[in-house]
Each structure stands twice: as structure tokens, then as C-alpha cells.
Amino acid sequence: MTTHDPSTGQIWTFAEADYRFGSGPLRIRIDRVLASAPLQQDGETWYEVEGIEVNDQGQIIGPRRATIRASRLPAVRRNPGR
């Protein structure tokens, strides 16, 4: 996983195992983490995020909502109340 600060508009890349539902890596500019509504699945915490998906060349694919493993969202781990 590549981590970036979502407030800067940079792209995050998540491995297929770290998000639901899709195939292959997910590249997304996260605009919003729905941290007030964590999900429990497979014994782990997951968060829904909203943002803009991009391809590996950085071209915009479009709006995307995904559920991502909390342990892969460093900003959420540091600030769970946000």
C-alpha cells in the first residue's frame, strides 16, 4: 500500500486484500473517510471512504466508494474520532 495524506489530494494505492469489493489494486484520491461508522468484518475494523478512483497512469476513472481495512488507513488509526 502507498500512503499519502488525503488532505493533500494525493493518491492512495490499496492491495486487493485491503479493500472491498473489486479486483486488483485500488488507486483512489480519498476525499472523505466515514470514520464515525466503522464496520466489523472478519475480526477487523473497516471504514467506508469516498473519493475519485484513478488508473495507474493517474487518469481519472470517476467517483468511487469503497470499504477499506482500517489498519491500512494511517490517518484513521491516529485519529479514530474524526
TrEMBL record:
Protein name, as recorded: Uncharacterized protein
Organism, scientific name: Paractinoplanes atraurantiacus
